[in-house]
Design goal:
By secondary structure, the protein is mostly helical. It has one domain. The chain has eight helices and no strands. Helix 1 packs antiparallel against helix 2, helix 1 runs antiparallel to helix 8 and helix 2 runs antiparallel to helix 6. The longest helix is centred in the first third of the chain and has 38 residues. The chain starts with a helix and ends with a helix.
Length: 162
């Protein structure tokens, strides 16, 4: 194995592990936000569960898209030196051809998209305003958000060094 392919392989591992860790942290934060919100607003449990479930489905969609690109188009995703740039690639720059390819090859992705379609546009926004305002005042959630922001900074540093 030559030096370039070893470096490329190492970069692939760094990008994959860094993005997976980011997704895990994001999902954990969403789950904590849901728990805190429902505790404070039990009468809005159903609306809160729906909105947080949708966010977790989005998180899972990005994970499947990322794995799809890793397997097929690694050089493109490896050029992204921040989590923001990776997310842009997976959301804003995601192509119709990639969407069709992933749908065709992955039944879990198709199921996930059905779940997203079932929940999108069905949030009771007025019912969520007060719980979300309260959430920002919750010390457990604020501390978790701060830890998440600090971890994102470290993950971005890992990507930029790679």
């Amino acid at each position: 194995m030559n030096r370039h392919s070893t470096r490329t392989g190492n970069q692939a591992i760094i990008v994959r592990e860094t993005y997976r860790e980011y997704l895990e942290w994001a999902k954990s934060l969403l789950m904590l936000a849901e728990k805190c919100s429902i505790k404070e607003w039990p009468d809005r449990t159903l609306a809160l569960q729906k909105v947080f479930r949708l966010q977790i489905l989005y998180n899972e969609r990005e994970a499947l898209r990322f794995e799809y690109l890793i397997k097929g188009d690694m050089p493109d995703i490896m050029t992204r030196k921040s989590l923001t740039r990776i997310n842009e690639r997976l959301i804003k720059e995601w192509t119709e051809a990639e969407e069709a390819g992933l749908r065709e090859s992955n039944s879990s992705y198709r199921d996930l998209l059905r779940g997203i379609a079932d929940l999108e546009g069905k949030a009771d926004s007025p019912a969520l305003d007060e719980p979300f305002q309260t959430l920002t005042q919750n010390s457990d959630y604020r501390n978790a958000r701060l830890a998440f922001a600090n971890r994102i900074q470290k993950l971005n540093e890992q990507l930029s060094r790679g």
